[in-house]
Amino acid sequence: MSDLITLTAAQMAAKLAAGEISSVELTQAHLDRIAAVDGEINAFLHVNADEALETAAEVDRLRAAGGAQADALHPLAGVPVAVKDLIVTRGQPTTSGSKMLEGWMSPYDATVVTKIRQAKLPILGKTNLDEFAMGSSTEHSAYGPTRNPWDTSRIPGGSGGGSAAAVAAFEAPLALGTDTGGSIRQPAAVTGTVGTKPTYGSVSRYGAIAMASSLDQIGPAARTVEDAALLHELIAGHDPKDSTSLPEPVPGFGTAAGNHEVAGMRIGVIKQLQGTGYQDAVLARFQESLELLRSAGAQIVEVDCPSFEYALGAYYLIMSSEASSNMARFDGVRYGQRVLPDQPPVTIERVMGATRAAGFGEEVKRRIILGTYALSAGYYDAYYGSAQKIRTLIQRDFEAAFASADVLISPTSPTVAFPLGEKLQDPMAMYLNDIATIPANLAGIPAISVPGGLAEGLPVGVQFLAPARGDAEVYHAGRALEKLLNDDAGTPVWAQVPDMEVAK
Amino acid sequence: MPEISRADVEHLSALAHIAMTDEELDKMTGELGVIVDSVKSVQEAAADEVPATSHPVELRNVFRRDEVGHVFTAEESLANAPDAQDGRFKVPAIMDGE
Amino acid sequence: MSQSTTDAAPLSFEAALETYEPVMGFEIHVELNTATKMFSSAPNAFGDDPNTNVNEVDLGMPGALPVLNGAAVESAIKLGLALNCQIASFCRFARKQYFYPDTPKNWQTSQYDEPIAFDGHLDVELDDGEVFRIEIERAHMEEDAGKLTHAGGTGRIQGSEYSLVDYNRAGVPLIEIVTKPITGAGARAPELARAYATAVRDIVKGLNISEARMERGNVRCDANVSLMPKGSATFGTRSETKNVNSLRAVEHAVHYEIRRHAGVLSAGGSVVQETRHWKEDSRTTSSGRPKSDADDYRYFPEPDLVPISVTADWVEQLRAQLPEPPAERRRRLREAWGFSEAEFRDVVAAGLIDQIEETVAHGAAPAAARKWWMGEISRLAKTRDADPAALDVQPATVVELNQLVEQGRINDKIARQVLEHHLAGEGAPSHIVTVRGLEVVSDDGALTAAVEKAMAENPDVVEKVQGGKLKAIGALIGPVMKETQGQADAAKVKEIVLEKLGMTP
Ligand SMILES: [Mg+2]
Ligand SMILES: [Zn+2]
């Protein structure tokens, strides 16, 4: 295993800028790593070697030539990145982890992909996910599950298990994820990496295949808080193609992630996000993190968010309703698979029915049916309408909490990574994984998951939340805890992952 | 709230255009029942006077200027079509005996 | 209900009206003439190659998102104001969900319980001047669907083997205007239907927010008809005749549906609530899709678009831009021009108000302007199978032509030729007259010679004139014209003949 790939993205960027390493060398090292370990991990659905090396060579050429063009290069130019396969890319297939889109080539790039191309980050490929991002374990991918680099018999979290596992296994220093109910943060937690769900509207959703439009956000996956902040800064900003994109200029998230001072910071512990359902070891690590923060001068307070009791229910109603609608376009008419019915007559109605029956997996169908039910005649007020009211109550809870705390804190996931297959037959048990991450999506606020230590050799995540548009604050708080834990353990969590190549 | 019956699920699968076998309908009826039970508390907690939040971050009046942007060629439009003819998407007969 | 009752023969219109009172309702879809689609920056254009006016948004591609066209919103507000509606201070779009291959996302982005304009009215004038108030329930924004062509079988939906889809029209901005139920029109219902559709077409044309060409589907009318027994206040079951695409057809469709409903009801049957297709050839309707419980559109607010809030300032700014309402303008012009009811109605029907107004503005007398546009120009248009308004004749050209005639430099017959040369691209009328040497022969020598020749060749005519039959001179004009290649002035010919015969003109 090349030493290059265990650097942080910031370190890679610095070495590239100093001319100590080339982007081709760095990109090739990651491609070699993918070749070595991805047969086991299955983080990638598509590896984009040729184009990645071309981009890398271009960056090297520009740097070597010097002058204005070299000076104008983005600080992360030449640092490779992986893209969750829910985000559309020209020149590479986009499947969403679904049979429905097998072989589909997007005729356009997502806005975040355009930004990445403009900044000249080599795109290593597309990462695995639960089909259409519907799941918490990456087991609902039509192309096989991704495995957790910490223990390949366990799930890497989901839906962005591919991006998190790729980053944890040194297959990529940076990756893009999407987070509708925790799909960036929960995988980060169970793979010992960092993941951020930005404020709703901070990053353009244009080109992210929608699950639930009012909840979805694209965000960064990385090994360190600083790396996540740098990638977030690169992909953020107003996009006229996304009506829900925030108009404000992007603050310097990287700078915020350089600040690890917590003296005087008021950190609110959410009463409702601990206790029943949370593993003892997860709670123990969480308490240790609180102690470290307190000893560094942070003021730990408890905050009450009574409406969180209804968050999971509201989430499942809003998410499934919007998902049932967003999934309607997959009908075998304009793109994607078309499946003919077994029996005549071959009418378009029956072709759509057969196409959607064959193209969608079980979890996608479950959510479409639930959402169709929730929106169908007579139930709108009771379900979708009520859930939107709960959303208001949750926002009010956060508002009250942020009156007495600068950031809030909770465990990211109630458990460590569980064994593959364990919850596959129990949808409700699977849904409970998202209990701590969902409120941020309902309220639209930013949240980060940072490593919170290990429990019996498996990573535990700690989540920080800040008010809407306060993304810089989650990087500040996240960086502070990251540094305290690294100093305490003498090494970062991510560096302790078992060596896959040796294991083989 | 009424219980979810198998007939309900059958109706929903028709609305959602997903063909389902008898087994799938049975399984889905059971699962949906459990899920719907678990989300029932939502309507009890949602009092009348609470306003609905449709967008987590409030924005208003986001408009586009009426200027032509990028357009596909017919080839680009049809590049992923399961079936096409004469520059158009081809689909089986629309309705059965409408 | 049994087949026999629904298939009952239509009653005569008179018989239907004896027993029943018709109730109408209209949904008119107006296609806006914006440069781009409602939610995408692809061109809003008609007649191009299939699937070339689309991008990922119009094709409902995964990941694509809508952004609202600000110009379409302003058009909607203007139309709302012209229909005397309230403009909502806050409104949103919703997804209307149903699967159909011409609908790329399998939902139509429309407005549901929050239309941008509501509670309006429109005063519609019938041919005899009677004014009828139509109450407008709402006008809302939505997007159009693509176009399906059914192939194989009969070419209609029924029995077709496959269909082809062109999404160029998908996403074209629409405003749907919905009336409240219209009662009390009685036998004038069909006429009122046409008058209402005409009024709406004229308004959107006047606002310049739509091409307003019904034959192209820029304005599409769905007509709802039901009957209730006279004296009853309970509405009957309605039928909805879809996409009636001419003003006449709107009138005929309502007329036919009243007769058909009456036939069904009188036979003891009950009307089926369904959509009907208009058949122009037989001037009848045929059964379409029955409305059923399956129409569960699962509306919910479109989360990919943000709400619209329209301030009072914005409304007033747009109100200030509104043109004079078409009905008021017509009243004003008719008085100013002094046309009779019939003359004015013909001008309106020919779609020539604008042309005549401009021609008058350029200095022509209203009667002269009318004479040119309704006469010669309309005749030429007819031979070209075109609308007179669509011919490339400018009001200034008409004024010039008219002056040439009034000055006696050309006669009416030559003027017709000049107009044809003008349309062939030969330039301004006076230029054509000069270059082609078309000026009326005023040189007495040449004309006198031609007259003398004609008189010598037609002694019988000369005899009649001498006998006091002055009208007989007309028979000499033909030969004189022939001799002078049409460049003679008829009045002058008459003058010379009388002079030669020693008679006083
Ligand atoms: Mg309608
Ligand atoms: Zn409509």
Brief characterization of the structure:
The complex is a heterotrimer of chains A (504), B (98) and C (505). By secondary structure, chain B is mainly alpha-helical.
Keywords for this structure?
heterotrimer, A: 504 residues, alpha/beta, Amidase signature (AS) enzymes, B: 98 residues, mainly alpha, 4 helices, flat, binds magnesium ion, binds zinc ion
Textual characterization of the structure:
The complex is a heterotrimer of chains A (504), B (98) and C (505). Chain A has 18 helices and 11 strands. With 504 residues, chain A is an alpha/beta fold. Chain A has a domain at 3-247 and 480-496: Amidase signature (AS) domain (Amidase signature (AS) enzymes, Alpha-Beta Complex). An 11-stranded mixed β-sheet of chain A has the order 1-3-2-4-6-5-10-11-9-7-8, with helices on both faces. In chain A, a hairpin with a 2-residue loop joins strand 10 and strand 11. The mean pLDDT of chain A is 96. The radius of gyration of chain B is 22 Å and the shape is flat. Helix content of chain B is 39%, strand content 9%. By secondary structure, chain B is mostly helical. Chain B has a domain at 6-45: Histone, subunit A (Orthogonal Bundle). With 505 residues, chain C is an alpha+beta fold. Chain C has 3 domains: 13-313, no CATH class; 326-436, no CATH class; 444-500, Arc Repressor Mutant, subunit A, CATH 1.10.10. Helices cover 38% and strands 20% of the residues of chain C. Chain C contains 17 helices and 17 strands. Chain C has helices at 3-6, 13-19, 70-82, 189-206, 247-266, 312-319, 326-337, 341-350, 353-361, 366-383, 395-406, 412-423, 429-436, 444-457, 459-466, 474-483, 490-500; strands at 20-31, 68-69, 86-87, 90-91, 94-97, 107-110, 117-125, 131-143, 147-151, 162-166, 173-179, 219-229, 239-244, 274-279, 284-290, 300-301, 308-309. Chain C is elongated and about 95 Å long. The termini of chain C are far apart. Chains in contact: A-B, A-C, B-C. At the A-B interface, helix 11, helix 12, helix 13, helix 14 and helix 16 of A face helix 1, helix 2, helix 3 and strand 3 of B. Bound molecules: magnesium ion (MG) and zinc ion. Residues 27, 176 of chain C line the site of magnesium ion (MG).
